[in-house]
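Supplementary Methods, section 5.1.

A reviewer requested that the exact input to the structure prediction be made available. We therefore reproduce it here, unchanged from the version used in the analyses.
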Amino acid sequence: MDNVLVTGCAGFIGFHLCQKLLKSNGYKVIGIDNLNPYYSVKLKQDRLNILLGHKDFSFYKVSIEKRDKVENIFKQNNIRFVVHLAAQAGVRHSLKDPYSYIDSNIVAFINLLEGCRHTGVEHLVFASSSSVYGLNTKMPFSVKDNVDHPISLYAATKKANELMAHTYSYLYGLPCTGLRFFTVYGPWGRPDMALFKFTKAIIEDRPIDVYNYGKMERDFTYIDDIVEGVTRVMTHIPEPDPQWSSESPDPSSSICPYKIYNIGNNQSVSLEKFIEIIEESLGKKAKKNYMKIQPGDVPKTYADIEDLSRDIGFRPKTKIEEGIPKFIKWYVDYFKVKL
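The structure derived from this sequence is encoded token-by-token as follows.
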């Protein structure tokens, strides 16, 4: 069995990925998480408790910005693949606590790169974000496009991760793949994300904050599609691109084993439509508090996933009409809500 190190294993995507890997029976999963209080520690612990019940799962409660602890984990385990999902998330929170993003997203990432480099890890897959597209307005967002104009520190740290990974791929031959996730949602989701906040507020008969006066569009991607893409990418180890040109460089590949993919639903859905589906699923109308766009937010996201489809034969396909009711069912069951 292959050992896979998953950072952020008690997080939303990390939890679902660990479950999928463990169910495949081909992997032993080594999970790392520091269970920080950015959002409900109980929710993280409840996810983790499910994973701890599996015989092929082991857990380290560690902050990966702690270099010596990360070094020891790599030394103690024969790790074949690393999937790095731990991060200080949230565009708006980065305006309030910038230092946590440097510690969790930059310092932690160099520790992982060093761990991979010194122990012969076969492939590092790491989470980037659609937020790296920043001021870009050409749709759909393509991995071939320049992304040098981020508008939040969170986005800048994700772009920095892509640059750091390329450097290690070039210098040390470490195969690295970055995945730009587009607005992930689904059961066990994060309380700071729109679906969770809207559902909670509507159930409690409180108004919801609708930014940019409702004129927002997002490429909402269901969690099962995300983890399917991640697991396929994990075993698809990148190779140097023979077509890569230093005169007109493709940002998504290189002369070293490095690749960037978008993982999105390949369609943009209006925020108003998103809210409608929540209302239909709950059988209750929302009270809307329309507000101006927040600093760091982009009005629209839309993923070009042609490279992902071509290379690993996968396209996310879950529509919000299917995914949102699944989240609502989980929410009602988990919080024992009576509708």
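The longest strand covers residues 27-33. These observations are discussed further in the main text.
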